[in-house]
Recover the amino acids of this structure.
């Protein structure tokens, strides 16, 4: 069953809101921020695409945010902006489902909870940190904030999180369990994540990200939240429609792409995942936007937002590898776009969109 | 600093009540519901706060409930245990 | 919403503190035996110990270096998957060429809470990546798909304690939509120091064996395990032995509080009503309910009131006295028990219950109880206000 995208809400390294994304796409590349960690041996500087969430207080009073961590703040901001974009901020949400996709969950709070007992003993384990570290806490905050009493679902499947969660959101709409889905993809940067990436990739973490060079490690860590308001496609789409969601494993049964299928690939400078794109893609027209929001599992949600925006604008915004001296190429109304993401083991998620 | 003053300060800090001044929390203001507006999750966090900052254990909510009414009742509970 | 197509259940597999497989679990359930004890696999400096239900024995998987390859949650999931597929008569080689999805619930299985690693990191000891690599390899749905070389969607549902129930409802919807031919669905969770510390900090763990629905209930006992079902589209499993069906599924969010259930149970009622609507089943047709029944004061109060209102007089049982609260696995294990009890025509006693609570309008079954009928309901409540309900049927319909 087709789904229609009615609103988009975003926060990421490029800024807050759909306009910030459009501006970033026109430029093709966003400079990551410089993050500094103090170590005993001196400070360490490295690039990261971090999300700012200061617009959230326009929607939610500060007091209501006192127990809400950065992961849930990004989630809430994405949700607020998407509802605003769809003009649903004041609507009845008893038939609005909430679906959240995340690769790692609330990393910072996960470690904050461990800190509470490692620092002060098990009797001082913090129940607030514990309950916010549970993966569905962000979805719960969204449901509570918007009085969304329909089903709520949080999915975590590393790189496949977004495609997998979308498959289930689609069934809710198809079976009439909900009339709208507030669909969000979120991941969070943390110092521990940086440490792990440093161990795995060493200098490869310094960027600049070159997503279409599948032979080198060039990923730069990112974070953010990308939200879509989805309905059944019997309503006219404000952006575009999601025609099909498919997941599988390329190693078990090779994925067959339509020749000439225009693709936004989730290649983000990870060599291990890059080899799958290298083996599959032939003459397909391909773009990749990791130089706009960085590398994290749920970034597929941003690829989806980019696809939806391009289909609405009927313009192909070039990626960081493209020639930005000339204006964006026009897309015909019949144009289709697919988002393709590979995990390191050959598992793939393919999401096909059209107007 | 008295137990009451310290309680107010750590309450604001550890429960992230950044819009509240210590003076605004009166000794006999209800901590939960109407009053300071705390809830059941804050209640268990308060148990940790009392353990962490005063070294006083609240074993379970049967013991905790009467103590966790106001700053006065909680301060008295702590002082009795420390005595 | 309207009726949905029933989805066949062709295989069951489970392991938990109640037993190492379904047969052994049922033996212990109907002998009313349970084995809570202090955790054996980790320790903490809590002033008191909270009993838990760990697996009674070691278990073996057809894997090399089982201990180091995958995290325990994934090992549990794989063990239950192999049992369920065997029960369904599927050999791994016969699954090739089919679209086989895996939809599982967990909590610990997808949380990066490697506390030994993190302690070393905090102390500036530059810990190695072995434990992180294992975490990245151990998504339980991917592990099953990888070990069995499956091609199809994979999904880990992390709806806290309703994850397993939701995963079964969602897996069934994939089959109705034609996204796959077979789905392995349920839940898995290992007992971990992190959840032990977390639930203790919320002051909802009992220092004694748990007492679901009893007046003296003080909280839950944590457990571990996995419970998985093989689900198939009716068109795929023609001429096969069918154990039963997923007839209905409902899910709703309280949108009330992060950790406390909504006192009026509105979300649970809504989930139940959706399960009734999707199955076309009426409340009076339900033979019994496998309740969430964690043994916490709040959960059991809400649940008892809702059961009294929606399903008055229908026998119900919490099996958490036998298994402990297995979190993301609970909905999977309890769905397996629900169908197995329907087939057996008997419910085990709600172990731990002896004295009714005057505040609660209903009481669970206090002894092994014969039941009639083909339909039962299994329900889960969770952190974040999630409620999920399945209606299962035995045999041919």
């Amino acid at each position: 069953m087709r789904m229609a995208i009615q609103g988009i809400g975003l926060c990421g390294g490029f800024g807050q809101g759909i306009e910030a994304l459009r501006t970033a796409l026109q430029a093709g590349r966003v400079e990551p921020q410089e993050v500094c960690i103090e170590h005993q041996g001196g400070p360490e500087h490295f690039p990261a695409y971090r999300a700012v969430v200061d617009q959230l207080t326009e929607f939610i009073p500060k007091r209501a945010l006192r127990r809400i961590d950065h992961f849930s703040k990004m989630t809430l901001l994405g949700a607020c902006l998407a509802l605003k974009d769809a003009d649903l901020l004041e609507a009845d949400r008893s038939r609005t489902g909430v679906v959240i996709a995340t690769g790692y969950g609330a990393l910072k709070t996960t470690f904050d909870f461990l800190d509470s007992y490692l620092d002060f003993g098990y009797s001082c384990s913090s129940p607030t940190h514990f309950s916010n570290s549970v993966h569905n806490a962000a979805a719960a905050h969204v449901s509570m904030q918007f009085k969304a009493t329909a089903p709520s679902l949080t999915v975590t499947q590393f790189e496949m999180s977004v495609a997998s969660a979308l498959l289930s959101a689609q069934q809710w709409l198809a079976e009439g369990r909900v009339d709208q889905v507030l669909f969000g993809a979120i991941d969070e940067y943390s110092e521990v994540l940086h440490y792990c990436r440093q161990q795995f990739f060493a200098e490869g973490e310094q960027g600049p990200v070159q997503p279409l060079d599948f032979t080198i490690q060039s990923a730069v860590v990112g974070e953010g939240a990308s939200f879509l308001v989805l309905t059944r496609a019997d309503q006219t789409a404000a952006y575009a429609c999601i025609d099909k969601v498919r997941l599988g494993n390329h190693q078990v049964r090779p994925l067959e792409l339509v020749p000439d299928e225009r693709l936004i690939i989730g290649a983000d400078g990870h060599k291990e995942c890059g080899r799958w794109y290298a083996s599959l893609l032939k003459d397909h027209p391909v773009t990749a936007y990791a130089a706009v929001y960085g590398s994290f599992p749920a970034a597929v949600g941003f690829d989806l937002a980019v696809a939806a925006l391009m289909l609405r604008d009927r313009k192909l915004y070039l990626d960081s590898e493209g020639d930005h001296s000339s204006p964006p190429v026009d897309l015909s109304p019949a144009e289709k776009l697919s988002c393709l993401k590979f995990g390191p083991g050959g598992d793939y998620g393919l999401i096909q969109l059209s107007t | 600093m008295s137990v009451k003053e310290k309680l107010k300060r750590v309450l604001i800090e550890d429960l992230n009540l950044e819009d509240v001044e210590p003076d605004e929390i009166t000794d006999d203001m209800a901590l939960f519901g109407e009053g300071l507006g705390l809830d059941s999750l804050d209640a268990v966090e308060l148990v940790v706060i009392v353990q962490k900052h005063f070294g006083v254990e609240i074993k379970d909510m049967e013991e905790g409930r009467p103590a966790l009414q106001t700053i006065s009742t909680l301060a008295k509970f702590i002082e009795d245990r420390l005595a | 919403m309207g009726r949905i197509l029933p989805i066949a259940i062709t295989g069951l597999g489970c392991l938990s503190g109640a037993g190492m497989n379904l047969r052994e679990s049922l033996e212990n359930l109907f002998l009313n035996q349970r084995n809570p004890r202090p955790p054996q696999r980790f320790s903490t400096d809590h002033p008191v110990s909270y009993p838990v239900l760990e697996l009674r024995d070691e278990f073996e998987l057809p894997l090399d270096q089982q201990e180091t390859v995958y995290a325990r949650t994934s090992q549990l999931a794989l063990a239950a998957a192999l049992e369920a597929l065997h029960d369904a008569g599927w050999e791994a080689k016969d699954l090739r060429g089919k679209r086989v999805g895996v939809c599982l619930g967990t909590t610990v299985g997808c949380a990066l809470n490697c506390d030994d690693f993190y302690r070393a990191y905090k102390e500036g000891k530059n810990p190695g990546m072995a434990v992180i690599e294992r975490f990245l390899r151990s998504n339980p749905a991917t592990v099953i798909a990888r070990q069995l070389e499956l091609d199809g969607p994979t999904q880990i549902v992390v709806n806290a304690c309703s994850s397993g129930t939701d995963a079964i409802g969602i897996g069934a919807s994939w089959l109705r939509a034609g996204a796959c031919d077979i789905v392995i669905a349920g839940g898995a969770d290992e007992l971990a120091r992190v959840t032990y510390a977390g639930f203790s900090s919320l002051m909802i763990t009992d220092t004694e064996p748990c007492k679901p629905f009893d007046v003296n209930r003080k909280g839950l006992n944590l457990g571990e395990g996995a419970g998985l079902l093989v689900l198939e589209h009716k068109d795929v499993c023609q001429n096969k032995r069918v154990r039963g069906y997923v007839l209905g599924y409902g899910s709703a969010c309280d949108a009330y509080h992060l950790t406390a259930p909504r006192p009026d149970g509105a979300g649970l009622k809504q989930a139940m009503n959706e399960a009734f609507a999707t199955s076309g089943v009426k409340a009076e047709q339900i033979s019994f309910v496998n309740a969430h029944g964690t043994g916490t004061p709040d959960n059991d109060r809400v649940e008892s009131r809702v059961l009294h209102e929606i399903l008055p007089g229908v026998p119900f049982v919490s099996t958490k006295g036998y298994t402990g609260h297995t979190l993301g696995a609970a909905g999977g294990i309890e769905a397996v028990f629900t169908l197995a009890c329907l087939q057996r025509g008997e419910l085990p006693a709600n172990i731990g219950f002896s004295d009714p609570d005057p505040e609660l309008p209903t009481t669970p079954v206090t002894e092994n109880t014969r039941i009639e009928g083909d339909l039962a309901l299994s329900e889960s409540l969770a952190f974040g206000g999630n409620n999920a309900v399945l209606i299962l049927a035995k045999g041919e319909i």
About this structure: The first strand of chain A starts at residue 3 and ends at 12. The interface with chain B takes residues 62-63, 66-67, 116, 120, 123-128, 131 of chain A (CB under 8 Å). Chain A is about 30% helix and 25% strand.
